[in-house]
Amino acid sequence: MNSNLTSLIQANDDESLVVQYLQDNPHFFDDHEDLLSCLVFKQEKADVVSFQTLQVNALQKKTKELESKLNKFVDVAHDNDSINQNIQQFCLDIMDCESLEKMFDVISKKLEKDFNILQSNMKIVSSENLSENSFFITEKSAEYQIVKNRIADGAVFCGRLNKLQIKQVFTESNEMIKSLAIIPLKTHSVNGYLVIGSDDGNRFHPGIGTDFLDFLGKFIAKAVGTVIKSK
Questions:
Q1: pTM above threshold 0.90
Q2: Contact 221, 189 (CB under 8 A)
């Protein structure tokens, strides 16, 4: 209840003061609709908009608000279920890959289709110069120099790069990329990264939660290691 009205009632039992307060503050119940449901009134007279009517209106408004919140919860639950299904299928499809070429093709297409990723690029760091294989880069490469300091602590990097850096990490220019994430691919036998870009400048920012991206990096790194060992 409004603190001024509460103080007035506690300080003096004279109803006239309460009446006077409400007369001086005609919009009191507009600002405190929740109080209407606590009041009790006599039967309303004809052609008069009573507090009972206001109570019903207030309750109907509250009901609609609750229905709106419930619908939002249902929508979120449905979206989460869809995301979980996409993640499961994503992992199953990666596990079926027998080569890095096939794996990256699956990763790129699934990220674009199911997770609204504009562009992606996966690289594995090697001490050898394997220039014939587009998935391997050396530690001295310009591309890796951009990436390594941003994921040196093993954590996912989320943020923005300038146009030249974007061109280097994606191996081609893309004016539509406004934010990106660099995901470490790290095991005892694999050292690499997956970079994913979005046309939404706010999608990948330093404060974003990275639980899914962390899981993605660990899973892909394990899968990459399995493929490399099988060769």
A1: no
A2: no
The number of domains in the chain is 2
Collapsing DSSP to helix, strand or coil, 197 comes out as: strand
Distance CA 202, CA 86 (A): 23
Model confidence over 134-184: pLDDT tens digits? 788 888 888 899 999 899 899 999 999 998 899 889 877 678 999 999 999
Buried residues in 90-112 as b, exposed as e (16+ CB within 10 A): beeebeebeebeebbebbbebbe
**Does residue 80 lie within any of the structural domains?**
no
Residues 56, 105: one domain?
A: no
DSSP-derived secondary structure letter, 195: E
The answer to whether position 81 is within a domain reads: no
Q: Residue with structure tokens 């289709």?
A: 113
- Give the structural domain span for 18: 3-65
